[in-house]
């Protein structure tokens, strides 16, 4: 019997209940793992509230790290005792133990702790596909990254700076602005007190940026489009302030023949080779020291509701993890 955070009816943080759960039998291709650290992400809020509907009851969570307890028939590249991590795949990370398809697990390399892996997998692999595949960032580019002091933002801004890009970040309040300046941002705009569109135009001499990475949603759209140079790209990968209202695609022409995409890690790490390559790139850049993972808060698993309140209240910086 394992302990888990389960949702019986969608709603606020109070919908998270800590209870006993029975693990399913180990099937062919599965692995039984014991968690040592669990990542908390905004997609967990979307699942909890029902924005991304799930059949209830369900165990929350998409990211974790731990140790292999047992493997099912046909699993040849993992064995009991291996340290592993994952992001994406079936929900169920908010638990002391779980059974998961082994193909979703990657081995944690020496020199990377379980907590770092749990804090970095989803956010870091998101940063990888955003910077290396959705729009391939290089020294010739200037980028705008919203929520630069957040979990994905800190990783992505460090990584983009390492790749030679000029990074403009947005953050809310002096403390988060100061933090973002230490995480790869050449310029940071306080969206609470400054007009980010006007500041971007000032910083870029009126040219605009090559790409905007936007996980905020409602509060930053369509203003983000006014920051982009002609034929640049707007990349939406979240909606922490609420969903973006439907818009006429002609707006992209009006703003400069812009490209737009709504990206998701599930589609960039859909196959085993893609998953392994994405994780390897992430672990390499962490091991090199180019990207450091900031764990801003740790909560006991049973206090997951408090972690959600902090996340939704934008009271977090860096990554938040749960400890079973």
TrEMBL record:
Signal peptide: none annotated. The keyword NADP applies. InterPro entries: ADH-like_C, ADH-like_N, ER, GroES-like_sf, NAD(P)-bd_dom_sf, QOR-like. GO terms for cellular component: cytosol. Keywords: NADP, Oxidoreductase. Residues 11-322 form the Enoyl reductase (ER) domain. Its EC number is 1.6.5.5. GO terms for molecular function: mRNA 3'-UTR AU-rich region binding; NADPH binding; quinone reductase (NADPH) activity. The keyword Transferase does not apply. This is NADPH2:quinone reductase.
């Amino acid at each position: 019997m394992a302990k888990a955070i389960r949702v019986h009816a969608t709603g606020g943080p109070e919908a998270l209940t800590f209870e006993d759960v029975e693990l399913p039998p180990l099937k062919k291709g599965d692995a039984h793992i014991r968690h040592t650290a669990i990542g908390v992400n905004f997609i967990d809020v979307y699942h909890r509230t029902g924005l991304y509907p799930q059949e209830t009851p369900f165990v929350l969570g998409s990211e974790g790290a731990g140790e292999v307890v047992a493997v099912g028939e046909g699993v040849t590249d993992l064995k009991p005792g291996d340290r592993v991590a994952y992001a994406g795949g079936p929900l169920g990370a908010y638990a002391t133990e779980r059974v998961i398809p082994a193909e979703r697990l990657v081995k944690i390399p020496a020199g990377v702790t379980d907590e770092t892996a749990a804090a970095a997998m989803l956010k870091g692999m998101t940063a990888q596909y955003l910077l290396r595949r959705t729009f391939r960032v290089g020294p010739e580019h200037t980028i705008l990254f919203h929520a630069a002091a957040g979990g994905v933002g800190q990783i992505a801004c460090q990584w983009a700076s390492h790749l030679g890009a000029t990074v403009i970040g947005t953050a809310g309040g002096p403390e988060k602005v100061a933090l973002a300046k230490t995480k790869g941002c050449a310029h940071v705009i306080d969206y609470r007190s400054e007009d980010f569109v006007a500041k971007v135009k000032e910083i870029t001499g009126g040219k605009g940026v090559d790409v905007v990475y936007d996980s905020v949603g409602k509060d930053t759209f369509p203003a983000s489009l006014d920051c982009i140079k002609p034929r640049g790209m707007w990349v939406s990968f979240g909606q922490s302030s609420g969903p973006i209202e439907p818009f006429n695609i002609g707006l992209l022409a009006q703003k400069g023949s812009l490209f737009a995409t709504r990206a998701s890690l599930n589609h960039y790490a859909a196959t085993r080779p893609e998953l392994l390559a994405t994780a390897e790139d992430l672990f390499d850049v962490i091991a090199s020291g180019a990207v450091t993972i900031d764990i801003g808060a740790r909560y006991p698993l049973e206090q997951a509701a408090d972690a959600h309140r902090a996340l939704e209240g934008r009271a977090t910086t860096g990554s938040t993890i749960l400890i079973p």
